[in-house]
Design a protein that fits this description.
The complex is a heterotrimer of chains A (about 325), B (about 260) and C (about 240). Chain A has about 325 residues and is mainly alpha-helical. Chain A has helices at about 5-20, 30-40, 45-80, 90-105, 115-135, 140-160, 175-180, 185-205, 205-215, 215-220, 225-250, 255-265, 275-295, 305-325. The longest helix of chain A is centred in the N-terminal third of the chain and has 35 residues, at about 45-80. Helices cover about 35% and strands about 25% of the residues of chain C. In chain C, the strands form three sheets. In chain C, strands 6-7-8-3-9-10 form a six-stranded mixed sheet, sandwiched between helices. Chain C has a four-stranded antiparallel sheet with strand order 2-1-4-5, covered by helices on one side. In chain C, strand 7, helix 6 (about 160-175) and strand 8 form a beta-alpha-beta unit. Classes of the chains: A mainly alpha (about 325), B alpha/beta (about 260), C alpha/beta (about 240).
């Protein structure tokens, strides 16, 4: 069963992507549009499929993969099933960094990638602060420290938006806190894809460390694994994944919490085997949520994060309940 | 650089000693952007105690920046001892009711909702200042539209388009354009529909500084569907307040059409 | 030839000039009061704590071994062990192969046989009893086939059956030509299963030698500050407080 998970995940991904290309307010022949677009033929169908629905589909897949992977990596690193990008403050840190650079037009030399780079810095700083606050040995403090950091970063984000030159900035707090992939072009994918690949590789290469960490830091170290260097690389990889995805799509909550938790029983709870299936499941989940967003009537666009939170929050409650029963 | 300021102070001081005009108002205060502009256009500088802070936030070329300004607080306005407070229908309701309670004269102007009402609005304003109604502007002659008329999409922030039956729609039509949108009011646009049936031109009226609200307009598909030279842009707040400058907008749009 | 030689190992304030030697095939029991430095000693040898002094493994300075090589030769069973995830016994034991970077089924099966957890291999480790878990953690270390096994109080909080089972597993592992160092509080079991004992007191070696040399009434009474009765002639040996 465990070996079939990844092929199964990829098959589901392809199906969801196809569904996403076929979903939209205008009726357009999907395959004809796609082939027109690939061949460079200018037709309305090519425009709608190739330049509106394809970027949106690919972005939602990439953002979901990044969040699923980041959640799996953080949970493995912190040995805590509640660790996810938003509960550890990484998402809010990334949003703060990205928004500050975006609205004030800082670092113009970096072009389109500037908010993503700032998102990386913000997510990395938030994670490091959280780890320093929690201390590596006490994983129970992780969530409390994460709450402190995310509250701080959230307040700083609101302040930044308040002073932004554009009068619409304050309204856009909703985007940064709840996320959306609408109205994005392929240029955003060019920023996100390298971050996904590099961040994913950084995390993937530490899969043995994540596996060993199941039995604690002493065991991991005694097995000859570079604990502190590996942990730093995982934090860097996670910051890359979260920073870029939040800079492009805002912080879509609960994907990083929900997805590893759903996938874990399918991979016999192994934190190393969890990584890739989590990425696939995260991609499928966010893309599906975005399809639902598009099916709602225009003008009432519900944010992506609202849908994922509606799914994720009950799970969160259930996790707390289960944990409580274990101690009673 | 200081010279114009000094001059204006001198002018204000000189005017102060001139006999008051027939209306008797000498210390006028406005509470919103539209009344700021009207005051700046029609009142003598010496009669204006202060404009609202809005006119600094949304600058226009013809309005100088050295007008006296209040900060929108009750204390400050009371301290300025205005003898006439002017504001638009939908602005500062709490502040203006408090000023009324305190015994200040507050005049509320109903904004025109059509081009025909602009002249009447101006004349009403002039009468408050005690100026002759003949100073009011007169609309330019309607221009015959092309056949078929060119379709213009008036696009604002967050992908909101301006539909029929609006003041802006009147301006477009007066300039000989046809509104791309057929429905009434302000509408959330759909990218796919515009890509499949693009307008002849887009008038982009939104704040220029970066925001996600501009993402709709920056989407490559829209840039492709309507080539760069057919994108027109204007400061979005020029559309917010009717007045004599409305005819300038009409003229500009007409020029663009040609 | 000595399997491991420790010379003047110091880690202020926990260890101060600790020296001992262990040959292959021997079990060394490290005894001493709480806080006397037993765990610190094991962690220094395992490379988890940065002690000063010389440690030679197979007559090679231990610094010459890369971390991965060191981990292949020296396995550590920490005092408290817990799995963060609900892993199967099979997967936990397989983690012991991480220093080798393979999943050697032969080694894994052998380790499970040695510690008697074969019957549990499909079970989830968090559903096992404390005694079963202790043997699973031991099997994890054995799967790495280290030539020196360090076990930090492996029988603390186990019942009599599992205490004996774990001790016999360690004894057999040493008999196969490996070295075992274990921290232990039960002197009777230490006297029965260990070839040598190292009595730690305030970070120093108070005594080192065979159980008969180290376990004297006077020494134990002094170090542990309670009167102790020792009868090594009994079978099994009896060491208890008066």
């Amino acid at each position: 069963m465990a070996r079939l998970i990844l092929p199964l995940g990829v098959a589901i991904l392809v199906g969801v992507a196809g569904l996403s290309l076929a979903t939209g307010p205008t009726a357009v022949p999907v395959l004809a549009g796609l082939s027109d677009w690939l061949l460079g033929v200018t037709s309305p169908a090519a425009m709608v499929i190739g330049e509106i629905r394809l970027p949106r589909t690919l972005l939602s897949l990439a953002v979901g993969a990044a969040l699923g992977l980041a959640g799996a990596a953080l949970q493995g690193l912190l040995r805590n099933p509640l660790a996810d990008p938003s509960l550890t403050g990484a998402s809010q840190g990334a949003a703060l960094g990205a928004a500050a650079v975006f609205y004030f037009g800082l670092f113009p030399a970096a072009g389109e990638a500037a908010p993503a780079l700032a998102g990386l810095l913000g997510a990395g700083a938030a994670l490091l602060l959280m780890l320093a606050l929690a201390g590596s040995a006490r994983s129970s403090l992780v969530i409390m420290a994460g709450l402190a950091i995310s509250t701080l970063a959230g307040a700083a984000l609101a302040t930044v938006l308040n002073f932004a030159p554009n009068p619409f900035a304050m309204q856009e707090l909703v985007f940064w806190l709840l996320g959306s992939v609408s109205e994005r072009g392929l240029n955003h994918l060019i920023v996100l894809l390298p971050a996904l690949v590099i961040g994913g590789l950084l995390v993937w290469r530490q899969r043995h460390l994540l596996a060993a960490l199941s039995l604690g830091e002493a065991v991991a170290q005694s097995m000859g694994l570079a604990l502190s260097r590996g942990s730093r690389l995982i934090v860097l990889g996670t910051a890359l994944l979260v920073g870029a995805s939040v800079a492009i799509a805002g912080s879509i909550g609960f994907v990083g919490l929900l997805v590893p938790h759903l996938v874990r029983p399918l991979v016999n709870h192994r934190p190393d085997r969890l990584l890739l299936p989590s990425a696939a499941a995260g991609a499928a989940l966010v893309c599906l949520a975005d399809i639902c967003v598009r099916l709602l009537p225009p003008g009432r666009e519900i944010k992506l994060g609202v849908l994922t939170s509606l799914l994720g929050a009950p799970l969160f409650i259930w996790l707390i309940w289960k944990d409580r029963q274990r101690w009673l | 650089m200081r010279l114009p300021k000094v001059t204006s102070v001198l002018v204000v001081a000189a005017l102060h000693f001139l006999p008051a005009e027939a209306s008797g108002v000498q210390r006028i205060i406005s509470l919103d952007l539209c009344t700021d502009w009207m005051l700046a256009r029609y009142a003598d500088p010496g009669e204006v105690a202060a404009l609202s802070p809005m006119h600094r936030q949304f600058p226009v070329a013809w309005l100088e920046t050295n007008w006296p300004t209040h900060d929108g607080t009750l204390e400050r306005i009371v301290a300025l001892k205005p003898d006439l407070v002017i504001t638009g229908q939908y602005n500062a309701p709490l502040l203006r009711s408090r000023l009324k309670t305190l015994g200040f004269r507050v005049e509320i102007l109903a904004l025109p909702t059509s081009l025909q009402a602009v002249g009447e609005y101006e004349r009403h304003f002039l009468s408050l200042l005690g100026k002759p109604a003949t100073l009011a502007s007169s609309p330019p002659k309607p221009i015959p539209a092309d056949n078929p008329p060119k379709r213009l999409l008036l696009l604002g922030a967050n992908g909101i388009g301006t539909g029929r039956g609006t003041f802006e729609d009147g301006i477009l039509q007066r300039a000989g354009w046809s509104n791309y949108l057929r429905e009434d009011g302000y509408l959330r646009l759909d990218l796919e529909q515009i890509a499949t049936d693009p307008p002849d031109a887009i008038l982009w009226a939104a704040p220029a500084s970066r925001a996600l609200a501009n993402r709709f307009a920056e989407h490559p598909v829209l840039r492709r569907a309507v080539p760069r030279e057919r994108w027109l842009s204007t400061d979005y707040w020029r559309w917010q307040c009717p007045g004599p400058w409305t005819w300038e907008l009409v003229g500009q749009l007409q020029q663009w059409r040609d | 030839m000595a399997l491991i030689q420790v010379r003047h190992l110091a880690l202020p304030p926990r260890l101060d000039g600790v020296s001992f030697t262990l040959d292959a095939g021997e079990v060394l029991g490290v005894i001493g009061p709480n806080g006397s430095g037993k765990s610190s000693l094991l962690q220094c040898v395992a490379g988890l704590l940065p002690g000063r002094g010389e440690i030679a493994f197979d007559d090679q300075p231990i610094e010459s071994l890369r971390p991965r090589q060191r981990a292949r030769n020296i396995g550590l069973l920490p005092q408290t062990c817990e799995s963060a995830w609900s892993l199967s016994v099979d997967d936990v034991v397989a983690l012991g192969r991480l220093p080798w970077g393979d999943r050697d089924d032969g080694a894994i099966r052998l380790a499970m046989q040695q510690s008697g957890v074969e019957a549990l291999r499909q079970r989830k480790v968090d559903h096992l009893s404390g005694g079963e878990q202790a043997r699973v953690w031991l099997a994890r270390v054995l799967a790495g086939q280290p030539r020196l096994l360090l076990a930090d109080e492996p029988i603390a909080s186990l019942d009599l059956y599992y205490q004996r089972s774990v001790m016999e597993t360690l004894r057999r592992y040493a008999n196969d030509g490996n070295g075992v160092v274990l921290a232990i509080h039960d002197f009777s079991l230490a006297a029965r299963y260990c070839d040598r004992l190292c009595l730690m007191h305030d970070g120093r070696v108070d005594a080192f030698g065979t159980p008969a040399e180290v376990l004297t009434e006077a020494r134990l009474s002094r170090v542990f500050r309670v009167p102790v009765h020792v009868d090594l002639a009994a079978d099994p040996p009896v060491i208890t407080t008066r």
